[in-house]
Amino acid sequence: MKESLLVDQHGRRLNYLRLSVTDRCNFRCYYCMPEEGINFAPRKELLSFDEMYQLSSLFVGLGVDKIRITGGEPFVRNGIIPFLYRLSELDALKEITVTSNGTLSAQHQSALKEMGIRKINISLDSLNAERFHRITRRDSFDTVYRGVLGLLNDGFEIKLNCVVAENKNIEDIIPFIELTKDHQLSVRFLEEMPFNGSDTFGYSGWDHQRIFDHISQNYRDINKLINEDSSTSVNYQIPGYLGSFGIIPSFSRTFCGTCNRIRLSATGELRTCLYGPPAANLRDLLRSGATNQDLQQILLDAAAKREKDGFAAEALSQESVHTSMSVLGG
């Protein structure tokens, strides 16, 4: 296996690209954007699929072997499936995964299976239709839940991502754990993050330790699983349950020391840390005539300058902490 040439100043190799294909979404989750939406980028400012493929090829040539497709909601962008077919043909790319809200994934299930995309993360913050509606501002719970079960029955590896917050979905934590009893899936509980596209964010205090304490009050035995070095979640399993659960300290940022991720937004912004400022805009460079060699050097330089952790990166950023996650690219 080729080692990534994208190495930061702390010796971490970046081999995982999170590629946002759109900033648009058919949900309005409170923790991502305000109910009225955001000022979405004009279509001409989005990377074309040809540009995305060219840049993805450059990343893979430098040792990136995993690409996660994010948004916004990836499946709302026309042309996404032909692009994924093309991407899947990159020889050195070992894995393509997708993060979705689950409303449209069932429509593309056979195509995803055919091209070998078998791992899908679904954002699902409640197992109660009323709470789901309050969180997403959309009445789509049945569609999403049926889609999750359909993917599981078709052999897909599913992770459910649940953002935990006071007065939103605390009642759902234990039902999510119970969902893993008979279903071979993983539920990951995430701390809230301050990227909601407005200035009304208030962190509710449900950090990773509080989430775990809440779960441990309901289960006598919890087995801690062995995690990959670069895992963002600490993973567990209730003895006898088919599935597992994990907790992601996305606000506390305790996983930064082993982070292997680099991000490219739908408008071409390159970020070596979600909390930090853009290192470059690859769209602008592409459209101004930069060569592949030029772009490769920019990627190498950006990786080399990556900060130690999300707190150090955030200190450099001039952006509002309330930038929408849909713009940042998940």
From TrEMBL:
UniProt key word Disulfide bond: no
Gene Ontology molecular-function annotations: 4 iron, 4 sulfur cluster binding; cyclic pyranopterin monophosphate synthase activity; GTP 3',8'-cyclase activity; GTP binding; metal ion binding
Cofactor(s) this protein cannot do without: [4Fe-4S] cluster
Enzyme class: lyase
Single GO biological process annotation from the record: Mo-molybdopterin cofactor biosynthetic process
The keyword S-adenosyl-L-methionine is annotated on this UniProt entry: yes
EC number: 4.1.99.22
SUPFAM superfamilies reported for this sequence: Radical SAM enzymes (SSF102114)
TM segment ranges: none
Entry keywords, A to Z: 4Fe-4S, GTP-binding, Iron, Iron-sulfur, Lyase, Metal-binding, Molybdenum cofactor biosynthesis, Nucleotide-binding, S-adenosyl-L-methionine
Name listed for the protein in its UniProt record: GTP 3',8-cyclase
Organism: Mucilaginibacter agri
Domain Radical SAM core: from-to ranges: 9-229
Cross-referenced InterPro entries: Aldolase_TIM (IPR013785), Elp3/MiaA/NifB-like_rSAM (IPR006638), MoaA (IPR013483), MoaA-like (IPR040064), MoaA_NifB_PqqE_Fe-S-bd_CS (IPR000385), MoaA_twitch (IPR010505), MoCo_biosynth_MoaA/MoaC (IPR050105), rSAM (IPR007197)
Database matches in CDD domains: Radical_SAM (cd01335), Twitch_MoaA (cd21117)
NCBIfam families: moaA
Reactions listed under catalytic activity: GTP + AH2 + S-adenosyl-L-methionine = (8S)-3',8-cyclo-7,8-dihydroguanosine 5'-triphosphate + 5'-deoxyadenosine + L-methionine + A + H(+)
